[in-house]
Every structure is written in C-alpha cells, then in structure tokens.
Amino acid sequence: MIAIIKYNAGNIKSVQNALNRLGHDNIITDDPNELMSADKVIFPGVGEASSAMKYLRKKGLDKTIILLKKPVLGICLGLQLMCHYSEEGNTRCLGIFDSEVKLFPPLGKIPHMGWDNFLSIKGNLFHGIDSDDDVYYVHSYFAEISSCTSAICDYILPFSAAMESGNFYATQFHPEKSAGTGEKILQNFLSL
After folding, report:
1. What is the pTM of this model?
2. 76 noted as active-site residue
3. What angle do CA 130, 20, 131 make, to 5 degrees?
4. Is the Cβ–Cβ distance between 59 and 8 less than 8 Å?
5. pLDDT tens digits, 71-126
6. Quick check: helix, strand or coil at residue 85?
7. Structural domains in the chain?
C-alpha cells in the first residue's frame, strides 16, 4: 500500500490518479499510524510552506515523516518542506535535506512554469531517464544545490530539481504531470 500524505496542500488527487493508472493501491491519509504501516509514502503538494508546516506539526506528522524508514517521495512543496528552511513565510521545515529554499530572483518570469530538462541527473529515480528528457514544473521557490542534490535544472539559476538522502527522495518537478518521463520516475520510486 502506498500512503499519500494529506496536509491541506493541493495536487494530491493528481498523484493518486497517477498511482491508480500505474495499478498501485493507495490511500490519502494524515494518520501517523497509516504512514508508518505503508510500504511507501508520497509527500506531494502545491501550497504555501508555513501553513503546510503548521498543519504537519498540529497532526504530529512532522515527527512521523522524519522517522520513516521506508522509501518516501516528496513532490514540489513536499521537496521544499523536506529541506531545513524556507524563505516562504520564514519557515523552519523538516531538515531531511541540508538545503535552504529561496524565492527565485526577479530576473525572469516567476513562477517557473512549464516543461524543462536537466543539467545533470544521478541516483535511483533516474534509471532509464536522459538529462534531455523534459519534466513539468510549477514553482516560485527553489531548493539550493547541496550534497543531497541528485538532479539539477537551470532556470534563472541552477537549482535542485531532485534530492536524495537515504530512504528519502524528492522532485521539484511534478512526475505525475510529466507524461512518460514522469511515469518512469514514479515507477523507479515504486520499485525501490
């Protein structure tokens, strides 16, 4: 069973629909016990960092997520909340990835929205993926490049397109909206 974390962020249903298309049983939950008993956990979201973290703390999910030993995939806001700090709302986040989340400088169109490829890729999520493959982004904030960075995209400046640390994986892009490339990335995660 795949557990999708419910925390009052958008885009959760599109992740569930992608899992259904791939034939994986799943639940949407904010119950720590269900997250602990799931085979894998997906932490998706579109929203605002400080209100999302407030909900996670209220439900005790902030502590639960960092204790998970199974594969966990953060998507978009999920990746940002797995970093240690976000400028959005001056928010202390989960601290899984040693990176700060910052607002893109006003040197180009914000948000970064649409299809883009990678400067580099490595790691378990990217088996069978080429750096020229396009994925879909919608974000105004980005995670700085760090030792956890597993993929880099360049929009205004280079940023972490994906991150990996132990059993924790995350993408700034939306694999569930990234056609065949995104489906392959989700399958790579689900086969871990």
Report:
1. 0.97
2. yes
3. 10
4. no
5. 999 999 999 999 999 999 999 999 999 999 999 999 989 999 999 999 999 999 99
6. strand
7. 2-190 (3.40.50.880)
